[in-house]
UniProtKB/TrEMBL annotation:
Keyword Transmembrane helix tagged: yes
Signal peptide start-end: none
Keywords, comma-separated and alphabetical: Membrane, Transmembrane, Transmembrane helix
Residues annotated as transmembrane: 95-113, 125-149
Protein name as catalogued: DUF3939 domain-containing protein
Amino acid sequence: MKHKFTKYLGRVTENLELGFEEKWIYVHYTKGSIEKTACLLKNEVKSNEEYLEGFFTENHVSEEMKKEVRKFLKNEKNHNDTHWNEFTTFLMKALSLNMVFGITIAICVYAGYKLGALLDTRFDIYPTLTLIGIFTGIGLGGVTVYSMVQKYFTSPTPKRKDKEQSINMEPVDIRNFPVIDVTIEDVRMAIRKFSDNLPKGVYRTILVQDDNSIDFKQLASLLGGIPSKNFFMSKETYDLFEESEKQIPLEMDIVQKAVDQYVKEHKEYPMLKFDPQHRVNYYQLLQDHYLKGAPEIQFYITDLDGLVTHIKPQKKTSSQS
């Protein structure tokens, strides 16, 4: 069985897939445009974490990802220990109750035999009632043993987890939170904490409303209040903006989708080959109908897996010896 882990490092997505077998560990790792696959042979007496540590160091896996994997491996070990404890408890119960079950059935059969034999002697119809008494004793013994199994071997229904889940799903009442002043960095940190606790397959874009503004009802508990001003986020790059720049994420999402589609079909970026600033070439996107109109903002293609940015890249200066 394979286990997948995902981390969002700013604009770059980091993915790790692990598969544990008896003799080896399968690892598939991607970070932006970097992709590594390895099969780690388990030929020494080491833990899974120790086998993975070398791969993590060699490929510069983020601390956030390593922390999540270590947490998973620890929980997996505790889970296995729990199963072992449950098995040993079951075994002890089986060994201690085995004798009780045998004695119970023996007593019921013996009592049925004696009662049937007594009635046969009185009514002189041997062995009819004796046989009926024996089979009745077997049935009564079986019912008694079944009742004991249900009482001692059936696990209790877990109710606490369901209760905790129902509590966590309760909607947040923003009237209980004050209006506060926050910085864009405060919002960024709150979004990261929020996304770290999301289930697999659910992304932080659930925070973004139709106008690209952030729904702070979901972040109120992390921020300690509702911000006094709006903040905006790109659904494609996760960049954050203040209200004075709210037009940027709207156009950024349109341009990013157009660039992604162009790359998918043309296998190259829509920019001039010798442009040192890597500006998005709107003419190419308009000509092939990836854009309906030229954006007012100039965007640039970064080295981070083809993500676009509105920030003009700085000129690289050569170091002098």
